[in-house]
Amino acid sequence: MFTGIIAERGVIDAVAPTGDSVRVVVRAPKAVSKARHGDSIAVSGVCLTVVESTADTFTADVMGQTLQMSNPAQWTAGAAVNIESAMAMGDQLGGHIVQGHVDGTARVVSVTPSGDWTVIRFALDPAHAPLIVDKGSLTVDGVSLTVSTVGDDWCEVSLIPETLVATTLGQLIPGQLVNIETDILARHVARLAHFDKGMTS
């Protein structure tokens, strides 16, 4: 489990196809310094398992389903990524509960500087839109964010300068894709409502 508080910005050093999956080498010195074989590290919101490591890189396998669900530009050599190590028991929950299982992608519609913050609007997939609420939590490329405004097929977040500098979100431009993970509580409620409707109809 993760919290969406990014510890460092990493880089995809290498990508090697292996059948319908890929093996990636990620440069992330801070995360690697305390990682062991089998540990989980979130890479721009995608939970990966460490299979090998060096002093400043780790290697992980990305399966086909994950490649289909996530931003394809993320899995290219040289891509900047957000890094978070898995939460340990007793750690502070600084963001919100993040599983590292992305629901899919959203497209950046606009990036608008506004005073001391920047407003980013995302176009949402119809399957994701009902799960995102005003002032609710949303994970974007692994970053825990609060939704500032929401519409039927879009949402906005307002980012402070620290978030823009400490994560890859400061480099977003219109048209780019980002990984999103909706709130796990919202997904459970939607699933329960689906079955409840079926039993009462």
How would the blueprint of this fold be written?
Elements: E1 8-18, E2 21-27, H1 29-32, E3 40-43, E4 46-49, E5 52-53, E6 57-62, H2 64-69, E7 80-85, E8 104-114, E9 117-123, E10 137-140, E11 143-150, E12 154-159, H3 161-166, E13 177-182, H4 184-200
Antiparallel strand pairs: 1-2, 1-7, 2-6, 3-4, 3-7, 5-6, 8-9, 8-13, 9-12, 10-11, 10-13, 11-12
Pathway: Cofactor biosynthesis; riboflavin biosynthesis; riboflavin from 2-hydroxy-3-oxobutyl phosphate and 5-amino-6-(D-ribitylamino)uracil: step 2/2
EC number: 2.5.1.9
Keywords: Repeat, Riboflavin biosynthesis, Transferase
Descriptive overview:
The protein is an alpha+beta fold and about 200 residues long. The chain has 4 helices and 13 strands. It folds into 2 domains: about 80 residues, Elongation Factor Tu (Ef-tu), domain 3, CATH 2.40.30; about 90 residues, Beta Barrel (Elongation Factor Tu (Ef-tu), domain 3).
Listing every helix as H and every strand as E from the N terminus to the C terminus, the arrangement reads EEHEEEEHEEEEEEHEH
**Mind describing the biggest β-sheet?**
7 strands, antiparallel
Helix/strand-derived category reads alpha+beta
Roughly what is the average pLDDT, rounded to an integer? 90
Highest CATH level, the class of the largest domain: Mainly Beta
CATH topology of the largest domain: Elongation Factor Tu (Ef-tu), domain 3
**Residues in β-strands, percent:** 35-45%
- How far apart are the termini? 36 Å
- Name the overall outline: globular
Structurally, the number of domains stands at 2
How many β-strands, per DSSP? 13
Strand order of the largest sheet: 4-3-7-1-2-6-5
